[in-house]
Design brief:
12 helices; 6-stranded parallel β-sheet; Rossmann fold; 36% helix; Arc Repressor Mutant, subunit A; alpha/beta
């Protein structure tokens, strides 16, 4: 028997006809699945498959632990052979029942899981402000955020089996996942449920060697291109790059971005270092670059956590940014950066990144037909002239 003539497909058609007629409204909750099976005289398996078909079509929305809800009315009214009393509890049919999803905060309260390490080390982890914005944005919208570790205390990926078990025992309506471990999450989700996740947005820092869709990016590639272009526009040709090499940043990917930016600017000079996020590591790397046969005229710092080490080198050698070396860096926490105000910088707005990620996911969950997009959040310039120089100054 083909799918088009299966009992579940035929029942889905009958349900759509019933949903198309008043008093059915978006946001109404159906009877529990076992009750539907009894009232419609079909098997629980048939009901489950039928509701799955309607969920895939965007007509229903399933809320774990709460039930199945009308997400949208399927079309103009048509003749139906099922009564609303068979499909909905009496409380949903009362005249003062809420008419749409937005006015059903309890029934439409979503649970979103954030799989990352963002929630750790408040005040020290640069991503903590992103976590705070995500939480506040969801709570203001009436939804709940659960934080889940996808890395352990040593910043290593949590074993797939553990992630899969958490997903299986504590499912959520949607997921926000740090992109550098996106494939790890997808494998664990597939292990838990046998399918790829459909309600997930990946959050990327710049320089990631792994790309997932849909992804909200702090577009570091564009930031590097803009910085190199600005250096070149001021006549500087020997531009060095200092980046980090960690679980979340691939030195190979960062180097490719830097080399692409230099090539695009028509510059042959290449000098880059990628180090651990430690003051002494940044100190050694910049010292090596300044002692190179062709030392740089300009330095792009791809991580503000390296600044202290850079400052130590420049102070020790009596080098002043703006007089002896042009310097641009990146601030990841707009409005709360520890970068000295004299340092020329590019600001990434992590708050806006969190808002965009949350809104994309909620729109997908609450609006039929909304397809999530990958969005790049570009850096904005915050020039401090004291640390920028033209060639020959």
């Amino acid at each position: 028997m083909t799918r088009t003539s299966s009992p579940s497909t035929r029942l889905a058609g009958r349900l759509k006809a019933a949903f198309s007629n008043p008093p059915v409204k978006a946001g109404m909750r159906l009877n529990p699945e076992r009750e539907l099976a009894r009232l419609l005289n079909v098997s629980p398996k048939c009901i489950n498959r039928t509701l799955g078909i309607l969920t895939d079509e965007g007509i229903l929305s399933k809320r774990h632990g709460s039930g199945n809800y009308i997400r949208r009315i399927p079309g103009d009214p048509v003749a139906a052979d099922l009564s609303v009393e068979q499909l909905f509890p009496a409380s949903e049919l009362e005249e003062d029942a809420a008419p749409h999803l937005a006015s059903l905060p309890e029934q439409q309260r979503l649970t979103i899981q954030l799989w990352s390490g963002f929630h750790r080390n408040p005040g020290r982890n640069e991503n903590y402000s992103l976590y705070c914005k995500i939480r506040s944005q969801l709570e203001l919208a009436g939804h709940a955020l659960e934080t889940c570790d996808i890395i352990d205390s040593h910043w290593r990926p949590v074993p797939l089996e553990e992630v899969a078990e958490t997903l299986k025992t504590h499912p959520a309506d949607g997921y926000l996942v740090t992109s550098p471990l996106g494939e790890h999450f997808i494998k664990a989700y597939t292990m838990a449920f046998g399918t790829h996740p459909s309600a997930v947005v990946f959050l990327s820092s710049w320089g990631d060697d792994e790309f997932n869709e849909p992804e909200i990016r702090l577009d570091g590639q564009e930031a590097v291109i803009r910085a190199v272009r600005e250096f070149a526009r001021n006549g500087l040709e020997k531009i060095a790059f200092l980046g980090i090499d960690t679980t979340y940043h691939s030195s190979c990917a960062d180097r490719r971005i830097y080399e692409f930016a230099m090539s695009r600017a028509g510059l042959d000079y290449r000098l880059s270092r990628h180090v651990e996020v430690k003051r002494e590591a940044a100190y050694r790397a910049v010292s090596e670059m300044l002692d190179a046969p062709e030392p740089p005229e300009a330095l792009f710092i791809g991580e503000d956590l390296l600044i202290e080490g850079v400052k130590d080198v420049l102070a020790e050698r009596n080098l002043l940014p703006g007089r002896d070396l042009a310097v641009i860096t990146i601030s990841h926490s707009e409005g709360s950066s520890e970068i000295h105000p004299d340092w020329t910088s590019l600001d990434f707005n992590r708050d806006l990144t969190g808002v965009v990620a949350v809104n994309e996911l909620l729109a997908h969950l609450l609006t039929a037909g909304h397809e999530m997009r990958s969005i790049a959040m570009l850096a904005k310039w915050c020039f401090r002239g004291t640390h920028f120089m033209k060639k020959g100054k």
